[in-house]
Fold this sequence. Notes:
By secondary structure, the protein is an alpha/beta fold. It folds into three domains: 3-35 and 171-198, no CATH class; 39-160, Alpha-Beta Plaits (2-Layer Sandwich); 205-451, P-loop containing nucleotide triphosphate hydrolases (Rossmann fold, 3-Layer(aba) Sandwich), CATH 3.40.50. It is built from 16 helices and 16 strands. The strands form four sheets. The protein has an eight-stranded mixed sheet, sandwiched between helices. The protein has a four-stranded antiparallel sheet with strand order 2-3-1-4. A two-stranded antiparallel sheet has the order 13-14. Strand 2 (102-106) and strand 3 (112-119) form a beta hairpin. The two termini are 63 Å apart.
Amino acid sequence: MHVLEFLSVLRKRWLYVLIPTLVGLGAAAALSYSTTPVYQATASVYFSLPYGESASDLYQGSNYTQKQLSSYASLATLPVVLEPVVKKLNLAVTPGTLAGSVSAVASDDTVLIEIRVTDTSPAAAASISNAVADQLAVVVKDLSPKSAEGRPAVDVSIVAKATEPTVPISPNTTRNMVAGALGGLFCGLLLALARDRLDTRVRKPKDMPGDLATLATVPFDKAARSAPLLNVRGGKSRRTEVFRSLRTNLQFVDVAKPAKVIVVTSSVAAEGKTSTSANLAIVFSEAGLRVLLIDADLRRPRVSQYLDLEGSVGLSNVLIGQVAIEDVLQVWGRDRLDVLASGLLPPNPSELLGSQNMIDLLNMLRLRYDVILIDAPPLLPVTDAAVASVHADGVVVIVRYGKTTKSQLASAVQSLRAVDARILGAVINMAPLKGSDAAMRYDGYGYYQDDAGPQGAQFDTIQASTSPRSNEPAADDKGVPGNSSTNGSLLRPAGVDSEQPADAPVAADGSTGQRSRTDRTGLRLPR
């Protein structure tokens, strides 16, 4: 793992590091403050020979004393010393128990022994240390060789009396808290790295399986829950610009073999395929193209709900020959967007989508429209999308950020490749605007605005059709060449119908000569 990748993991999963660090710090602090303080008192005992006149005598006496120091230190923890101490101080412990809190340390190259006693009471530690030192001196004198006059060969002196300590030696709160924080930090780093390695959810383009290209990354928008459709005339929002970029990528994904009929699907449900289909159709219409949006999800259709259109009659009715296609096409908006709803839910959706009637219908619609978008069911639960993709020019797979797993996406792609479908790429949906995986980072330029446009008159730009057959006259609604979109671009006030010429005849009831009808939502439906 590179340094930048490591830093990216820390930035994305900083909570995994912070929480264990705080837990370790808090646990160490709680343990330190709940532990009873222990104090240590120290008394120093000096050993020497009481006789020696020449330098040689003094040197030999010093060597003798140093060699005996380890033995004298061992006496400090034996009952011969501690039993009198227990009796003298009236301690409620046995000599063996007291030995656990007493230590005697002989200093190197000196004739000093330090008597160290630990206790929860500073006064008790000092008194026991002094008592042990005094008793050690008595025992050493009793055990040392005697001179002819009966004088001990070793002289023992208390050179430093123990005093009551003011600072406990345990617990060391600062050391414990630093150790707890470092331990928690280490555990947090391991947890963050493990979580990142074990995370199988798709979050960025490099998580895509194989050579699956990422066509766009759509940012998450809270307002999309209540208003999922784009307002292309309301300013330059983040989502609008992303869908325009997606439109461009689809137009140039393969210039030699442009995709006219595109299936939009996903691995599983709730990944945003329907909203993506509808918004993609909107931005294609905005570019002046003749666009048809087909709701081919014959199990759980949503297009008619998103666009507020009639969905009880549509694709399924056309495929079984109940109605003609002209009778069920619905017009949405002002940018030449036609919609074919799902219709009645049939018992055999896959068979209908793979039927010869579906093939004939798509071949006929290819002559009428520049772009046909098909909203299909998810790939993993059912085979409808894979069946529909066989007759399409390409497939776009929608991937929900942080929800779709790599295995799900790989299985979905495999199901498409099994039927030799052409996969145009994937769209990562609902990506965050902040963090290491932020979808867009243009805020600093002040370029984007909210969807709500400025007050006053609004203008729409009608662009020329970018149909792949640019050198041929476009076909009208009946497949007859001639009546196509205007060349170039025209700036006009919002609300003026681009399809109605300035001198169009107006009937007595105020309507034009165009044959149309109005459904229950107030939208114009061609007959």
